[in-house]
Design goal:
Length: 268
């Protein structure tokens, strides 16, 4: 991709999630259409339950933080501990950050980074509304994180890295900000077959978490090249059921699947 194409992708992604932040209208995970039928909050809860969140988790977050976005539950694989520092790539309205903040406790800290001003504003308002003191929401791109070197123990993310047109820079930045022995715990989509050009070249589908997916082998190579070890990428075939709903006329479930992705930065 040339630089202009990268800029077009970022613009399309930012516009899509700016709209989601302003209208709270999405409720079908990362797909380009809304579920419809239910009230937004209830639709978001139902979608998140299908992505793997428990009812207890859904009850714990501030109202308005769950927009029904994502393709999995990174909390389920992060094994967060009290006192840890957590970074959420593409933190949206703060849903995963609020769950992480409760797991790391007052002695821990959570940083959420998102490139959409409206999302960051919503997340900050949600944090203030519920009195969270151990979270910082920062405006920035995940290819150039506003985070110091070796500052975090764990990086989580929910269906966001696929949206970047420069995934290698994202992983290099993740490696930079992780402490030695720090870990990745990511839910994202991976490609299980070659994406047709009508999907790969569609900006709307790129912004909807479909067109930018890497294959498992491509992602493994990038993680290895960046320096990560103990890499595990576990596809979740059951995710095809909700991926099918993202764009019913595109048969996306034939090409992409959600996966749990874990890796570790080595000790010095």
């Amino acid at each position: 991709m040339n630089e202009m194409t990268n800029d077009q992708i970022r613009k399309a992604v930012r516009q899509r999630y700016s709209l989601a932040a302003q209208k709270s209208e999405f409720g079908c995970g990362c797909g380009p259409s809304c579920c419809g039928g239910e009230a937004p909050d209830e639709g978001h809860r139902q979608t998140s339950a299908r992505l793997g969140y428990t009812q207890e988790e859904l009850d714990q977050v501030p109202a308005g933080s769950n927009l029904g976005l994502g393709c999995g539950n990174p909390q389920a694989i992060a094994a967060l501990k009290p006192g840890e520092v957590v970074l959420d790539l593409g933190s949206g309205a703060g849903f995963d950050c609020f769950l992480a903040a409760q797991q790391v406790g007052p002695e821990g800290f959570v940083i959420g980074v998102d490139m959409t001003p409206e999302m960051v504003a919503n997340a900050r308002a949600n944090a203030q509304q519920d009195g969270y003191k151990n979270i910082s929401f920062r405006l920035g791109e995940i290819e150039a994180l506003p985070v110091a070197n070796e500052a975090v123990d764990v990086i989580i993310s929910n269906c966001v890295i696929n949206l970047s047109p420069d995934k290698e820079s994202v992983l290099r930045e993740a490696f930079r900000v992780l402490k030695p022995n720090g870990r990745l715990a990511i839910s994202d989509v991976v490609a299980t077959a070659d994406l047709p050009q009508e999907i790969r070249g569609n900006l709307d589908l790129y912004a909807a978490c479909a067109a930018g997916a890497l294959t498992i082998s491509e992602l493994e190579r990038l993680l290895n090249r960046t320096g990560f070890i103990d890499i595990a990428i576990t596809p979740k075939d059951e995710s095809r059921d909700f991926i099918r709903e993202w764009a019913p006329d595109r048969n996306l479930e034939d090409y992409i699947v959600s996966a749990a992705i874990t890796a570790r930065k080595p000790l010095r």
